[in-house]
Amino acid sequence: MLTGIIGKPNVGKSTFFSAATLATVEIANYPFTTIKPNRGIGYLRVPCVCREFNVKDNPVNSLCLDGVRLIPVELIDCAGLVPDAWRGRGLGNQFLDEIRKADALIHIVDAAGATDIEGRIIKPGSHDPVEDVRFLEKELTMWMAQILRRDWLKLARTVESGSKDLIGTLEERLSGLDIKRSHILEALKKIDLNPEKPTSWSSEDFLNFVDALRRSSKPMLIAANKIDLPSAEENLERLVELGYIVVPCCAEAELALRRAAERGLTDYKPGDCNFHVLTPERISKAQSDALSLIQERILHRFGNTGVQEAINIAFFKLLNTIVVYTVEDIEKLSDHYGRVLPDARVVPYGTTARELAYKIHTEIGESFIYAIEARDRRRLGENHTLKDRDVISIVSAQRRA
After folding, report:
1. Nearest by Cα to 29 from 9, 45, 44
2. Taking the complete model, does pTM exceed 0.70, yes or no?
3. Which tens digit of pLDDT belongs to each residue from 258-281?
4. Per-residue DSSP letters for 107-168?
5. Are 20 and 45 in contact (CB under 8 A)?
6. Alpha-carbon distance 190 to 58, whole Å?
7. What is the pLDDT of residues 103-122, one digit of tens each?
8. Running DSSP on this structure, what letter comes out for residue 277?
9. Domain residue spans in the chain?
10. What's the CATH architecture for 322-396?
11. Residues in a beta bridge with 343
12. Cα Rg, the chain, nearest whole Å
């Protein structure tokens, strides 16, 4: 699964990305700093089951820090979008194409209104961040509409001839945008249109459908960035009224905290509500003052910087995923090398035992016999729906627990 970080220029997208991944990217106070997309690995933060089972784990595909499991996920930092990007302005079409495969979007918004609609620096409070959300909604919808409109009439006539149904035809046509049958069905439910007579749809009907399809296929949350600047908090409620999940955010603070932890100066973990300085003798007064301000103005005020929370929400709420731990030896909770709780896997809610087996390896899925959950040791059939935090061993002809 891939989450895209999007927004207009100069709102802190690259800072957010760098904080989330600790990747080195160009960050500057002018539009179009990011020209090519940056891809990197961020992390989901969840309580590890090692504490529940009272074991010392040996993660392989993730990290466990003091009972906190950090599971890697892919993020892409897209270049800034400006009005009429869907028409190609500011390399807009090229930038929009970068998010074709994104499953969810984190929209970085300058909540302080300190950048105009083009991304130029202005006095905080001079711009309405609600306009940024509305303009980006339009850009994404018009971009999708432009792609679908190219052969819409031909597609609609094919449906009405009875050769294919609309859902199947759209699924095939939009596969390059990673739009699935479930997304199309959800969009059609939200609008009162006849799917058997698409040639009767007006231009407004068509755009309403595409807009509903955008919302279902590319779910989005708002990271209200620069929350530490004047006027930012005043805009939070207005952003929430737009109907999105809104996370107060300070990407600069998160980046500073992660860099300090990386150097061993603090014990900060992504998403923590507090931290302690480990080596005060190595920190200058300026650094100490900066960390104190972050603690007072961000962590004590909002509970966290918002970066880790936004990533967690994107995967767990927008994409409706759960975490399942896989082991081979159900007694020792280990793999065949003896590593305890080695793998934490992020899977969609509703994943079955056999589907999990296929995610481990195709041959294990094909030769699936049954699964075992570590807590009650029950045998689970192939159609058993997994739950969050399940610890599962798959028994197959290829691999037996």
Report:
1. 9
2. yes
3. 999 999 999 999 999 999 999 999
4. EEEETT--B-TT--B--TTSS-HHHHHHHHHHHHHHHHHHHHHTTHHHHHHHHHTTSS-HHH
5. no
6. 46
7. 999 999 999 999 999 999 99
8. B
9. 322-396
10. Roll (3.10)
11. 326
12. 23
